[in-house]
Here is the input.
Amino acid sequence: MTVSGWIHILLFAALVAAVARPLGGYMTRLFNGERTLLSPLLGPVERGLYRLAGVDARTEQHWVTYAVAMLLFNAAGLLLLYALQRLQGVLPLNPTGMAAVPADLAFNTAASFVTNTNWQNYGGESTMSHLVQMAGLTVQNFVSAATGIALAVALVRGFTRSGARTVGNFWTDLTRGTLYLLLPLSLLYALFLVWQGVPQTLAGTVDATTLDGVKQTIALGPVASQEAIKMLGTNGGGFFNANSTHPFENPNALTNLVQMLSIFAIGAGLTNLFGRMAGDERQGWAILAAMGLLFVIGVAVVYWAEAQGNPAFAALGLDNAAGNMEGKETRFGIAMSALFAAVTTAASCGAVNAMHDSFMPLGGMVPMVNMMLGEIIVGGVGAGLYGMLLFAIVTMFVAGLMVGRTPEYLGKKLEAKEVKMTMLAVLCLPLMMLGGTAFAVVLDTGLASLANAGPHGFSEALYAYVSAAANNGSAFGGLSGNTLWYNLTLAAGMLVGRFLVIVPMLAVAGSLAAKTRSAASAGTFPTHGGLFIGLLAGVILIVGGLTFFPALALGPVAEHLAMRAGLLF
Amino acid sequence: MDTHSKTATRTPASTLLDPAILLPAVAGSVRKLDPRLMARNPVMFCVEVVAALTTLLFLRDLLTGAGGIGFSLQIVLWLWFTLLFANFAEAVAEGRGKAQAASLRRTRTETTAKRLAGAGWESVPATLLKPGDLVLVEAGDFIPSDGEVVEGVASVNEAAITGESAPVVRESGGDRSAVTGGTQVISDWIRVRITAAQGNTFLDRMIGLVEGAQRQKTPNEIALNILLAGMTVIFVIAVATIPSFAAYAGGSVGVLVLAALFVTLIPTTIGALLSAIGIAGMDRLVRFNVLAMSGRAVEAAGDVDTLLLDKTGTITLGNRQAAEFLPISGVADRDLADAAQLASLADETPEGRSITVLAKEKYGIRARDMAGLHARFVPFTAQTRLSGIDSDGVTIRKGAVDAVLAHVRTLGHGTAAQDNTVTALRSDPALEAAVREVQAIAERVAKSGGTPLAVARDGRLLGVIHLKDIVKGGIRERFAALRKMGIKTVMITGDNAMTAAAIAAEAGVDDFLAQATPEMKLQLIRDEQARGKLVAMCGDGTNDAPALAQADVGVAMNTGTVAAREAGNMVDLDSDPTKLIEIVEIGKQLLMTRGALTTFSIANDVAKYFAIIPAMFLAFYPQLGALNVMGLASPESAILSAIIFNALIIVALIPLALRGVAYRAVGAARLLRRNLLIYGLGGLIVPFVGIKLIDLIVNAIGLV
Here is the structure.
């Protein structure tokens, strides 16, 4: 570990904190339906869209209606994306003549992009036509992100409204999130990337002759536009198979920093929105601080593990000072690869700038743990905040009791219904993560895809199911996921991990909105101080972490201990 | 009248080691193994299912002669012990109430009633009485059922329900008309209209409550049960996937070991003690002589944000006392004292007596004999708001300032004023000056929280008596403690705003409601509730009933009317309004104990993992021995120690569950920090130490 590495990491943290407030303020105005900077420009467009769709922007929805609208919209998106892939051979904008995507892979990909996961069992440049990339994948990158943001705002409204029957209007939340937030930011961001050297073209490939005289085919395409939303919307699906390690996606140190920042930007801003809507910005900062605490612990472990390097090399008498550089880009180095890995898995992005499979066992464990906890460390846009708030409900339920009152959070009493729905949402993740892995590691069809034996192979399968259910989408590598078994089971993991969390979460929102908000007194435990932050982080680690202790012991921990004993996999 | 000072007449808690409770509890813990009873508690029900399954497996192994029988037997036994310990906790908690219920039940049986029929009465068993029946109860008789006194006055010994042997007066009309079945009339006689149907009397409900027979799960208990059930399901997933993971690694894990891991991970500690905590909370209230009609009310007490307290009897001593004589200029204070004493000689109210006493103490004026003075006493009425004497041409009046002023004005105008025919009043500059002076003094007295009484002799104003409310000792500190708990106190009084403000300031309450009517009280409660606050109050009169019903916690005084007792959700047998404060503390303690043990239970899991995981996987991943941070001797002893710890910790925590976590009136953050330190951090560390110790013992005596 180097001082400059840590300075980079701290600089990044400071930048995240710096963007949270302005973005939070903008989003608060946006989702409260107030005028924003862009209203003169986009207002007519927004109203035109509502007229076209027959949506009354002023009518609010009960949580059930909100959930049904959201599910219908996503089901339609799933079908459309599936159809586009299956029909890409006969559709335009297919300069390289890609054939139809096989059914199971198309289903996996459709589920993956609709759920904001962007798990890719395909190589983008070698499977998808420009039309699918732009009209299919990129569109889902926008709307799946906007869906997440809308849902988080609905839950926040649940906390901040008093005696209300409704939690907002899904259609307006979706439209506003896309139109006023994601599109303008992506536009600026894409221009920045083009400036930094990321291609943006509808051309096919370029043939080059290398210095050795070998002919090389270089894939091109509308990369910058997809790259922007891939980060902002914590989607993570790269244009190229190599994702952000590819110089056309992530050319230099500056783009690397901005990419990491853009992964966290909206998620961090939403915590501020939470505070503002609750009428006390400190509530938002406390949530962000709990996220930050868990994040820094994670980064420190990965950075430490990677900087140590592999003791096996040291045993051979090799200079190990550079740390573990296997699977890393030299233009990013250890610190920025470690930071990127922590950021991308803490949020549900899944873009990678280094190969997690090649990390040291404990280094690779951190991304896994980040996802197992439910990606609540800033998390996916929207998903991170609502996941975190569900954990806050569990925390306040137990802690609230310890101050001798019926548990409450932000003045809302937490009772049987909230606890029931929260536990349902919390249950989904371990079920899909551990359940999926349990089948995959005993069935031949699952085992056949593993590249490595022993605990490392186990980690590969575990990582895949964890990444899918957490809607992350990053891959450990080493696993050949494009098989019927993995396409279907991972798709199931992604759909359950997204929608079976969302529906109970909306039920919580609806139930909370209907309650009266009681005023805080000296007898209520303040949820903006250090004690709450530490307690929340502790509950997340113990409740979230304990579930996965056996699996982690058999994967990365066993591998790490074996490595120290000189046994590699 | 000052029976209020004996706060917190606690019946001593029977100790855990009381054999009268212990022995039936042991039998009870076996009886409670019935799965139909167990199903109420999801966590312990899971343990029972696992215990039954492992028992079957053990029997199979026994028959097939498989190895490791001794180890299996111990695991199976400890699983059953875990269940028995949990049941034991509940049985002990119930046992304490049962002992009390048994003595209550004795008073209920074998009563005969004198039912009024026609001119006389007939003797019928109390069990045959119906609501509406009229009965006669004479000295020495037990009151056969709950009812209302319709005629007569009697002193009644209510020791059976209150534990207080000093008799109380019950009379028809007013706020002291309710009588309770099972209590005994000591002197005189009363006619009582029966109000409660058999099986639903106060005593019946009390027996049901202390026995826990009618115990319904409270809302928070239900929510906590859901949380625990959810965590149990999570651990089902975590444990059920282990065999497959182990198979991948080329090993296998026995069912017994998985069962042990599962049972130690699920929150058995809190699961086992949850219902005991609830019963013990009710029991604590009962020992404070408060009967909660539902567990819900006890929980609500912990949440109370606003406490409405009647001024009289709660904040101040029941009666105001004369503190000073304040004459107007030109009148000697001895004159005023003399007139005031004369006016009060026949006044038997405590205020009147205090005036006589003060005059004697301060000026040495002896009380004179009314008869010797040929005096006629003019009693106080609600219309005149005056009292005094007329004797030998001397007219002395004392009373509310405006009433006395009106009196002197009319008297000053001559006797014609008394038949109210003259409306135009004489304007006498001397009188007007005296009026202004009295008004000024009165205002000063009122501002200081006192009640001014004006005194006039023969139509001439003499001055003002300062009646002072005596704020109870130590009440200020109690309100300060409540404020730290985040509870706002509101004083309810019939006094005017100025007087109320002064007393409020002296007592240290946060707010007051002056010149309160029952309607205003009800409105205040509704307003607070609309702001999301929970309100507690106590009351005794029939006109308090709507407010008692509206309040989230309504404590009715046992001396109160039937209507008040029906409307409240708690009854204070000692009729001590300050007890609201204890009730709130008991409610908080109940919730805190649940939270603390839940935290402890969850935190325990870390150590249990470190005990069992290395033991479980050691066979195929020897390197995981590094996770055996406790240095447990062998995989078998590690697993056994973890499950023994898991069972014994239940027993160790029974006293805490019954006693409750100590509540301190400090801010919520400090309270939480303290509890987190003890039960969170303690919950992390204790099992590491405990499991290690048990492992040492297990190996020393060669159990594995």
Q: What stands out?
A: The mean pLDDT of chain A is 91. The CA atoms of residues 31 and 173 of chain A lie 7 Å apart. Chain A touches chain B through 68 residues (CB under 8 Å).
